[in-house]
Design goal:
The structure holds three protein chains of three kinds. By secondary structure, chain B is α+β, with helices and mostly antiparallel strands. Chain B contains two helices and nine strands, in the order H-H-E-E-E-E-E-E-E-E-E. Chain B starts with a helix and ends with a strand. The longest helix of chain C has 25 residues, at 93-117. The chains are: A mainly alpha, B alpha+beta, C mainly alpha. Chains in contact: A-B, A-C. The interface between A and B is large, with 76 and 76 residues.
Chain lengths: 487, 172, 145
């Protein structure tokens, strides 16, 4: 099917970038452990590449899979999906080119970076800015197409929100209309909040590009900071709200149970729609010039954002699994583990979103601790789960127990060691984005690097196993013989 | 302030361990006799209501405790002594000596890009911080209770010498 | 209800046209970029309201070309809003007015394209466009006050 080609193009590109960025991440951690020496400009170029690349990789995987899922609900134009893919890949190429040219301003650089104090050539700044712009355009194309799909499939915004299911339940049931399946809420929320994030990203991105062309163009740094974080936080956060669609769709198949759209689920996603867009203020807690009301909104929205996942989705997933005859395969293992990772990462996030605690944790390694927990042991797990679900159902074949244990120990054990390094160092006050860390940073980075190596070994095992499953013949179910036909 | 970070870490690790244990126990039940979904959901939904109330209570208590402890300056700071701090690529201009056990306010700004004014106490713990922004002044109220040598580190990526950007002052 | 919508749409369209040509009427040259951005955002807003109020086509999806227009035009508009691009034409009332008219037409086309793509999407296009247009007033070519 051509739509599968679209899905695999997005996901395999995302996985390829993910693996490369994992190696970049390992290099950085080893530098911080003082195992290897990288000069500061190279370190920060790699940091820039790693941040931009990893987020884009995870988002690409989510986009591909969710597009495929929504296509089953309402067919969509392939050309737009390919167009979005093209813009994102073009953006990634530009970012790689910029970093190769020495650009080292980090992916959430704050104006007046990357202009003031730049030791990299000006062309690399322009190339990076255009690269991010292209990624944002590709994202906006995808979001708009998905929004159109959701509106067509369920009857506008009202239908997509399941408004009538919630407020006019009896009439809705009698009407014979179909409520959106759970994964469609992920599509709707990602499309709407994704477009808002894209708007913020384009507003500040265009201003920065024009400043690059006309350096006399003034830009307000607080304005730029707000828009940069609104774009960056929301874009990264939406990765998990896309990827959960995989779990909604596929985990029930392993439990032989149903995950249906209830009034509670619909209301929970309404909450996510609002809170994901308003939580970004927690990035500006230490900007005391920020209007005070926005700080309060940041803390409240950050707390509230945790409720829908914790109470409805993760709890719902656990309930689905409880006393079910769940078949443990790599897919179901990754889906379940991702729910755990999301919940643990969420606790780390909510802690940091508490302002008096943020005073001691802001911009320490606690920040990468919690977002790596979400992204590595949340989003990536859901993505791996989806890929193995596709491969397992294609071949009706599963991974042997020993290999599952090996992968699990490496991915979860190595991952836990890597993540623990950041939490411990962050609590000890070690700042983030330091090429040379003060004590106890280097010692912690040493054992965290071991964790990263083990984790990467697990990822390589996954790639090997995925390759093995992909090469197996497609499973074709036997047809029952016709009556009267020879046996 | 940093003692609270260790408490936070321990609290987080305890919560993470509890989650792991509970989720592992749930996973284990897939080897027990299977129950139909219709048998599991009613008590499950009741448990979910309880879980919601527990989380809501934790959120409300946390908000209630954190609100009075917000670090932002409130009105009536004119009588408090102000000290100017200017960050720049790659160092800090700050007063060399500050008074102990006295409420003070740092007026923090930057000459070039965004920096972070991070204060580490004599034991190396992150005591307080605020952003140093160009074209803006952030006011950080602080009271130093321990005399000694304090280190300043940059807490916001500001360029390739970000990790080497340091300052210091003494509290007497 | 249709009558009210039509009236609103026509009034918005007329207001957009008239206000676009204010430079010709008042000969005022705006100095502050902050205010200028808001003026542009209001003009575009009127164009957006006109299209949303007057759009009448059914809900069937049409050519993907409309999606490309709905997504790429706001980006182009943001570039055209750079103060450094129009500072030279500001003191000239006719080019200044035509620049305003261009914003109105591009905004209207954006929202029309969104609605043509899939009915309802035009509203999101409108939100995206107006968000960018208004938010620009607080930092795009504007130093802290």
């Amino acid at each position: 099917m051509r739509e599968r080609t679209v899905m695999w193009a997005y996901m395999l590109t995302g996985i390829a970038v993910f693996v490369l960025m994992a190696l970049v991440g390992l290099a950085m951690r080893m530098e911080q452990a003082q195992w290897i020496t990288l000069n500061a400009q190279l370190f920060y170029s790699l940091l820039t590449l790693h941040g931009a690349g990893m987020i884009t990789a995870m988002v690409l995987c989510g986009m591909g899979g969710l597009w495929y899922l929504m296509y089953q609900e309402q067919p969509m134009d392939h050309g737009i999906a390919w167009g979005a893919y093209f813009f994102i890949v073009l953006g990634v190429v530009c970012v790689i080119g910029a970093v190769a040219g020495g650009f080292a301003a980090a992916w959430t650089f704050l104006y007046p970076l990357p202009f003031v104090g730049a030791v990299w050539p000006s062309w690399s700044t322009g190339l990076f800015l255009w690269g991010i712009a292209f990624v944002t355009i590709g994202w906006a194309l995808w979001c708009t197409q998905i929004l159109g799909c959701v509106f067509q499939a369920y009857g506008g915004l009202r239908g997509a929100l399941a408004w009538d299911l919630v407020f006019h339940h009896d009439e809705f049931e009698k009407s014979g209309r179909r409520e959106p399946p759970p994964f469609a809420f992920g599509a709707l929320v990602t499309a709407i909040d994704g477009l808002l994030a894209a708007a913020a990203g384009m507003a500040v991105g265009v201003a920065l590009i024009m400043h690059w062309y006309h350096p006399q163009l003034p830009i307000d740094p607080l304005w730029a900071k707000n828009l940069t974080y609104f774009f960056g936080h929301t874009f990264a956060n939406l990765a998990i709200y896309m990827a959960i669609a995989f779990v909604y769709f596929a985990l029930p198949k392993y439990t032989n149970r149903e995950w249906h759209t209830s009034q509670v689920l619909a209301i929970a996603w309404w909450g996510t729609l609002a809170f994901v867009a308003t939580a970004y203020f927690h990035h500006l807690y230490m900007d005391f010039v920020q209007p005070r009301a926005l700080q309060y909104i940041g803390e409240v929205a950050s707390y509230l954002a945790a409720f829908p996942p914790a109470v409805v989705t993760i709890f719902g997933g656990a309930l689905l699994v409880y006393r079910s005859h769940l078949r443990w395969t790599l897919a179901s293992m990754f889906f379940y583990a991702g729910l755990v990772g999301w919940l643990i990462g969420g606790i780390g996030a909510v802690i940091d979103a508490t302002i008096p605690i943020n005073l001691s944790l802001h911009n320490t390694l606690w920040v990468p601790a919690h977002f790596h927990t979400y992204l590595l042991e949340g989003v990536a797990m859901f993505v791996f789960g989806w890929i193995f679900y596709m491969l397992e159902t294609r071949a009706e074949a599963f991974t042997p127990l020993l290999m599952r244990w090996a992968i699990g120990l490496c991915v979860f054990g190595g991952g836990a060691l890597l993540l623990l390094g950041w939490y411990v160092a962050g609590a000890a006050g070690v700042p983030r984005r330091y090429s040379m860390q003060p004590a106890p940073g280097p010692d912690i980075a040493s054992w965290a690097s071991i964790g990263a190596i083990i984790l990467i070994a697990g990822i390589l095992l996954c790639i090997f196993e995925a390759g093995r499953l992909a090469l197996l013949p497609r499973f074709v179910p036997e047809r029952a013989p016709k009556e009267g036909a020879p046996a | 302030m940093q003692a609270s970070s260790h408490t936070v870490l321990i609290g987080f690790l305890v919560a993470a361990a509890a989650i792991l244990l509970v989720m592992a126990a749930i996973a284990r039940t897939t080897h027990d006799p299977t129950l139909a979904q219709s048998e599991v959901t009613p008590p499950g939904y009741a448990l979910r209501r309880g879980w919601l109330w527990v989380l809501a209570a934790v959120a409300v208590v946390s908000l209630g405790i954190s609100l009075p402890a917000f670090p932002y300056p409130t009105g009536g700071t004119a009588h408090v002594r102000h000290y100017t701090v200017t960050a720049m690529q790659y160092g800090f201009q700050n007063p060399p000596v500050l008074p102990v056990n006295t409420p003070i306010i740092f007026d923090v700004t930057s000459k070039d890009v965004n920096h972070g004014f991070g204060i580490y106490d004599p034991a190396g713990r992150l005591y307080a911080q605020v952003q140093a922004m160009p074209m803006y002044v952030n006011h950080l109220p602080v009271r130093f209770r321990t005399p000694g040598h304090y280190t300043i580190r940059c807490m916001e990526y500001c360029g390739i010498a970000h990790a080497a950007m340091q300052g210091a002052f003494d509290v007497r | 209800m249709n009558l009210v919508r039509t009236a609103v749409g026509i009034c918005a369209a007329v207001a957009a046209l008239v206000l676009s040509f204010m430079p010709l009427i008042t000969h005022e040259v705006e100095i502050e970029v902050h205010t200028h951005h808001i003026d542009h955002a209001v003009l575009m807003g009127l164009g957006v309201i006109a299209v949303l109020a007057l759009y009448r086509r059914g809900a069937q999806a049409s050519s993907p070309m409309w999606l490309w227009i709905a997504v790429l035009l706001p980006v182009a508009i943001m570039f055209l809003m750079a103060p450094s691009l129009y500072s030279d034409i500001d003191p000239q009332p006719l080019p200044h007015s035509l620049y305003h008219l261009m914003f109105v037409l591009l905004a209207a086309l954006t929202v029309y394209a969104g609605q043509r793509f899939v009915r309802g999407v035009g509203w999101m296009s409108a939100i995206v466009l107006e968000f960018m247009a208004f938010v620009a007033a607080w930092g795009y070519g504007v130093a802290p006050r």
